[in-house]
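Below is a filled-in request sheet from our internal design queue. Each sheet records the structural input a requester submitted and the sequence that came back. We keep these sheets so that new team members can see what a complete request looks like end to end.

REQUESTER: design group, bay 2
PRIORITY: normal
MODE: inverse folding
CHAIN LENGTH: 118
BACKBONE (tokenized):
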């Protein structure tokens, strides 16, 4: 093996080491991020879904089911009685499977509403 080749190997080794370190840092950051997210979710502190969010607009989401002008809305339907709603009973807001990472209003509504049967 020439001297030059040995140098290359040392370079590769240090690159590997660097990549390992970088991967470790990314993993730590990801876990820290998950922790913060879990704490928010645990506290029921998911950021509220905004009516002006593009996805919310596409589904005509409203914070107040009783005020929607959408003809598909049936009286009494709201997020609290929708199968996609995962909030605790009695809570003002909760997660919706259609809007991951956001909270919807228990009294809100969108066109994807699917009434719980029980
Ligand atoms: Fe509310 Fe259901 Fe629409 Fe989610 S899918 S925003 S819970 S009505």
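RETURNED SEQUENCE:
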């Amino acid at each position: 093996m020439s001297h030059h080749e040995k140098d290359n190997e040392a370079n590769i080794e240090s690159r590997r080491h660097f990549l390992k370190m970088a991967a470790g840092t990314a993993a730590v950051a990801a876990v820290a991020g998950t922790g913060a997210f879990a704490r928010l979710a645990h506290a029921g502190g998911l950021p509220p879904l905004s009516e002006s969010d593009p996805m919310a607009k596409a589904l005509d989401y409203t914070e107040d089911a009783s005020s929607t002008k959408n003809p598909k809305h049936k009286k009494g339907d709201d997020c609290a009685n929708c199968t996609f709603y995962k909030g605790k009973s009695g809570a003002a807001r909760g997660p919706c499977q259609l809007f991951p990472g956001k909270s919807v209003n228990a009294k809100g509504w969108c066109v994807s509403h699917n009434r719980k049967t029980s």
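SHEET NOTES:
- The longest strand covers residues 93-95.
- Helices lie at 3-42, 54-58.
FILED BY: M.R.
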